[in-house]
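1st attempt posting a full record on here, be nice pls
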Amino acid sequence: MGMKFRTQFMAPIPGITSVLVSAALSLLLISLPACRLRAQVSAPIEVVDGKRYYLHQVVKGETPYAIARNYGCDVQVLVASNPGSDAGIREGQMLRLPVDQCRARVTILVAPDASGFINHEVQKRETLFSIARFYNVDPNDIAEANPGADQGVQRGQILRIPVAKPAVPAPAPAAESGTMKKHTVIAGETLYAISVQYKVPVDAIMNANPGLTEALRVGQIIQIPQRSMPLEPEPSDRTPLDGSQPFAPLSLIGGLEDSYQIGLALPFLSEPTDTIGLTTREKRLQAVAFQMYRGALLGADTLKAMGFRGDLYSYDVADSKDQAQMLVMKSEMKNMDVLIGPAFRDPLHEVAVWSSTKGPHVVCPVPQANKVLLGSVNMSKAYPSEITMWEGMGTFIASRHKDDRVILCTTNDVEDLKRIQAFRGAYFRERGDSVNEFVIQNRSISGISKMLGSTGVNILVVPSADRLLLTTMFRDLQSSNTIVYGTEEWENNSIIESAMRNKYQIRYPKAVFMDYRNPAVIRFVEAFRKRFRSEPDEYAFLGYSMLVYYGTGLMQFGRAFPNHFGEWTCDACVGAGFNYVRTGEDAGFENRYFAVVGTQEFELYQMNK
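the predicted structure (as tokens):
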């Protein structure tokens, strides 16, 4: 027998929704906030001297900056590909935008041949997944049309891309009832964004609009059904990652108990009163909760394949001590083995105090200062603190760059000083010597050229996320033999152009890293998309990995698994890792695993594998 799933709802306590995973059907109404959605645009494509370009025809009122933003590239990329566009563009003008430097979701308007296929020549570093993403088609469809492609593709290989598969209109679902709403598509809008806006599943919208595809047109009218069906399918309809071997599960020796119970106490904020007037932080944590929950559901599939037996519960706990106190009073808590959450500090503290003598092992699933571990001996923190990651950066750089010229750039900013001190101390412990330092004044690196060598490799460490500093730094930095290390905030900072990222091989610490060349990551993304009709972010990967990691610990060591941290590995984890260390005699455990992510040839790699 595998993990058991029940379908009945449990009697709710005011302020807390407590259901088993198969009954938490209403929790999937909200997903990523709109600010994380990429624009959807449609464009023809042409190849010039072996390089692919989107062709964009300028419409009245458009600017180079707006066009570049819609295609997900820097305006400098547009200007470089269209000489003279920096002086102005005109209505009807045709602009080229290089495909490999654009990050927006683009529907490719390429005419297929008579058989409905496009012939694609595989380029350097392309994979089956990246090609499928480029053409907005299912990788399985490409593999079916090209036998052997699922085993890998080679540069120069010609693939047949089935972009013109005839659409089969889906019948309108009988379960939908009530009146329809009409929605007019606006520029940059996606089908997924519309589903989030109206809290209606994507497939329900597509069923209500036979022939509808994700290639939306501005001004298009879409019928929005009144929601009457849950977003989450019944357990018997769930799609496991792989019925036989999802993510290469571990070989386990069997559990110490017949079954185990794992709970998720996250801020779903699903009660009607909770969704009014949410703060920015609450909205962000709500999005995190749904991502983590969905990832955990996929983790449950993997645990079932490993032979795990037990139940997965979910609870809606916001920033309320009262909710935390009611949570620990629930009858099933006396048999709970692991509780992931709450996410807010005050209820987390309430639960941790209770669990230290009576309850399950508690997991802090989101970034929190290490203070939450004080006095909480039965708690572990899955997300490493920024200070911990910068201590790790000091050790990594001191070891990795023994023969290079390392320069630490310091500022007087309070947040920067925490990272600087953590790096400085760890570097000294590893090398037995202090690091060379350059003091940044007035957000300028003027004068640093005197410290940079013309030979060998310069390592510039800048533990700051100050946007003005970054603007001046990458404008003034003139070096062809320098590698730059920065903070995690640099990852999505538009100030740092892709050419700069590549030139200086920009690197930064990251708690969860999704390497899209990794087959396990690709399978996870495909399974997540198929099941939830949305894109996973880092918290989906973390939710999946936490459930698999702690479930594995329970199977091997029972409730005593915290005494055995470090004695088992999570080979089935994806995107996240775990390396727990107790932070004090009267304190809990912190995960000190993180990835050092770096840019090479315009792609991201993990440098500390």
